């Protein structure tokens, strides 16, 4: 495709034009001979939210250190002392000129939210309130605590907070600062969709109402779409070089990314396009049931939390998506199915082998990745296993590393591979998107899908990334209720009914992008939002 059409060129006229390769021009920064090089820089702008879309290891942190004035980029001359005057010369006449002048004059102050919020307890002792009060430079704290729903845990020790709670505390702590430039390295990990949308709104308000410059890296595309005004796509070869494109409109940037082809740059970044079904998949004739389970109930302690589950059937060979807010009982249901928990009401007597990937991954044996995976499957290393599992999950580069040295995203990919490599009747994956960058999500999604199709395997996936769910699931199980108090799980439903059930609870509707049919969150109370709610169609248009 030439990038103009989504589908293959109808005239068969154009071959792939350009595959990414390191650029001829001088980089913005090079760490040393044969070391990582960064090309381009994002453009922060007061009053607006600038997004970066691209893989990890592509130079985002390097770029932000330059934009924060913590490091003078060397323009590729790594053996000379870099100066801001040289940087200014390079960017004179571009959209960055003003910004670089301010950095040179020491006029830019920055607040940043780190990517891995799990590390916060290691760096800070005390309650969430202690942490937050030290950062409240704008007197905005009470409002953030309220809107991010941190109140119930704010006086607890930081060490006791869950991932989702830490993420919201870290967001409040960053946004409450009084700075010129805010850098947020991922906002969505561990948050459910409602919380992601709230976080996006708070960030937009900070930019618009307080006239601040905000730069965000985000891998959940539906949220990035809602959050950013302009977008830089980042591509290249992680660890070797990274190119940050000129700014694009968010809509175009995401469309081009999904298409796999950047028009202005004339650059193909992926061999095939990612496409969404505009209409709900038609009800298919079902295969054999894998399990039929009765109505179930489970509560903890003396009933602080209780879950009830409608009776339902899971069919052989389907991918069943599981959606719902945090704290509503999704993991509890997973543990009922694995037999780790026993229901109070109802009986699960199936003799199923279940391969389970939990949300929080603990693989801490001092063992190499290859040794670990070959202990799980005797298919390890076969060309079939490499094609189906190792390649799409990008495991080859980390095979010789120790499990204990892996980053969050690397650990996630090993855990997904381990789960799919077992011989089982049912594969249950709890939040496979966590810590994966956008390209890894795409790859992991197709690996899981293909695995299900080729093996007639039955897969249940719990996740909050709606694009991933759309690409993965055949049917949906929807949880609702009151988080931490009571949860209700629907029986598995067709995609249309499931999406309507789920999104009406959240009060969010999606429209379709005209060019790519990609789902986009509607502005609340926009004409489309109101029409779709009236018609009861929250996701699939008529
Ligand atoms: P991202 O934030 O996109 O994950 P980074 O900017 O942190 O990427 O890093 C990009 C690449 O630069 C990585 O391969 C990293 O190892 C390398 N890198 C980062 N800092 C240095 C340094 N001081 N010296 C040499 N290489 C570095
Ligand atoms: P989800 O997976 O939807 O986020 P969970 O099933 O993990 O939800 O938890 C639902 C509720 O049950 C939460 O309020 C959680 O704190 C509580 N809970 C989970 N496990 C236990 C347990 N072992 N003892 C007491 N309460 C628990």
UniProtKB/TrEMBL annotation:
Its Gene Ontology molecular function terms?
Answer: ATP binding; ATP hydrolysis activity
Under Gene3D superfamilies, the record lists: P-loop containing nucleotide triphosphate hydrolases (3.40.50.300)
Database matches in InterPro entries: 4Fe4S_Fe-S-bd, AAA+_ATPase, ABC_transporter-like_ATP-bd, ABC_transporter-like_CS, P-loop_NTPase, RLI1, RLI_dom_1, RNaseL-inhib-like_metal-bd_dom
Q: Where is this region: Disordered?
A: 513-542
Q: Does the keyword Glycosyltransferase apply?
A: no
**Record field: transmembrane:** none
Q: Which UniProt keywords apply?
A: ATP-binding, Nucleotide-binding
Which stretches does UniProt call biased (Basic and acidic residues)?
513-536
Using the record's annotation, list all stretches that form the ABC transporter domain.
14-263, 291-506
The organism's place on the tree of life at top rank: Archaea
Is Nucleotide-binding a UniProt keyword of this protein? Answer: yes
Which Pfam family is one of this chain's hits?
Answer: Fer4_RLI
Protein name stated in the entry = ATPase RIL
